[in-house]
Each structure stands twice: as structure tokens, then as C-alpha cells.
Amino acid sequence: MLTIGLNVVAPVLTYNALSDRGYADFVALLISGVWPLVDIAVYLAWHRRIDEFAAITLVFLGLTVVVTLVGPHSARLLLVKDSLVTGLFGVVCLASLAASRPLMFYFGRKFATDGTPEGLDRWNGLWQFEGFRRVQRNLTLGWGLGYIAEAAVRVGLSYVLTTGAMVTLNAVLSYGVTGALIAWTVLYARRARARGAAATAAAAAPAAVAG
After folding, report:
1. Whole-structure pTM value
2. Which residues, at least 6 apart from 15, have a Cβ–Cβ distance to it below 8 Å?
């Protein structure tokens, strides 16, 4: 609930309060964007570790700071640039499919292992299996397409809706899409492991009978 409050509710309330007091849209947007940083700080202080959602949020926040410093200080352009940050991440995901190993392989190695040399070696060794490679590429494809689609929708709506409406929509979409992609990743990986275990058991059954 705290994460939803700081990432969805607080930015909207802050923007509306500052706008009502006469602050320019650009300034109100910048100040309201501080709340996700507060959420990350609280999470790190409480858990003393970074999970997938926190890591992706930090990446997005870093990219947002960079793009905010570039170009004219326009509230509309700030909304568009904020949307393009997630689109850029999606493009990076798709581009990594041409590399030897896709981006989600490295995210998985970071968060699905205990970080020990043995755990990292085990994860790296899984790359020899065609099923594992397919799962990592499909996950990367899903994240890439998901964020590009989300960015396209947000950019289009930025030129149709009011700034206040976009502040609310951005908060909901940013949190909702990332949460949905993480849930899909967990579910897809779980099902892939179940299929792999079933295939291994099926392959072992004839050998056991023959023995």
C-alpha cells in the first residue's frame, strides 16, 4: 500500500496541490516526480536489498533525470520524454535479442540467484539448454514489446489529454504495466520450469523401466 501511495497517489495529489497554488505545470511535474525516489529510499532502508521492481524503477528514474535536463522546459514535452523513457527501455530489450544473450538473462542472473560464484555459474550453465534460451528470449521480447506499446499509448495521449489527467494516467500506467510484466514473468518462468521438469521425467521413465 505504501508503494502505491508514493508512486500513484502522492504524485497526483502533489501536482494538483501545486497547480492550485499557481505553480507552472513543468515545476509541478518535477516536484511531484520526487515521490518515487522517496519510495525507493524507504524500501532500501527497510529491506536493505533491491528486487526487480526497485531495480527497474531506479533505471527509469535515472533515465528520466537525464532526459529532463535535455531540451526546453515544457510540461507537455516533459510528459512525452517521460513516456519515451519506458519506450527506450523496450527498444534496448529488443535490440539485446541480437546479442549473444538477451537483457532478461542478466536480470534473471541478478535476481534469481543468491549472487554466489556457485549460483552465478549454475545460472550461466543453464544457457546450454535450448528451452532456457527460448524462455529468456521470450521474456525479453515480452518486456520490450510491452514497454514500447505503453510508451506509444502515453505519448499519443499526452497530446490529447490535459496535463493533470496525464499525471494520473502516467502514475497508473507506469506502476501497472511494470507490475503486470513482473507478474507475467514469474508466471511464465514457473510454467516453463514445470514443463521442463515434466519433459525430464518423461525422458527418464523409459530408462527406469529398461533398468
Report:
1. 0.70
2. 28, 29, 31, 32, 164, 167
Per-residue pLDDT of the chain (211 residues; tens, 9 = 90+): 665 666 667 776 787 788 778 877 767 767 776 777 777 777 667 766 665 556 666 766 666 666 666 655 677 777 777 677 788 889 989 999 999 999 999 888 877 888 788 988 999 999 999 999 999 999 999 999 999 999 999 888 888 888 888 888 887 887 788 889 999 999 998 898 888 666 666 655 555 555 5
The helices-and-strands tally (H runs, E runs) of the chain is 10, 0
Q: How far is CA 184 from the centre of its chain?
A: 12
Q: Are 84 and 67 in contact (CB under 8 A)?
A: yes
DSSP 4: H
Q: CA–CA separation, 183 vs 169, rounded Å?
A: 20
**Rounded-to-integer distance, Cα 44 and Cα 58, Å:** 12
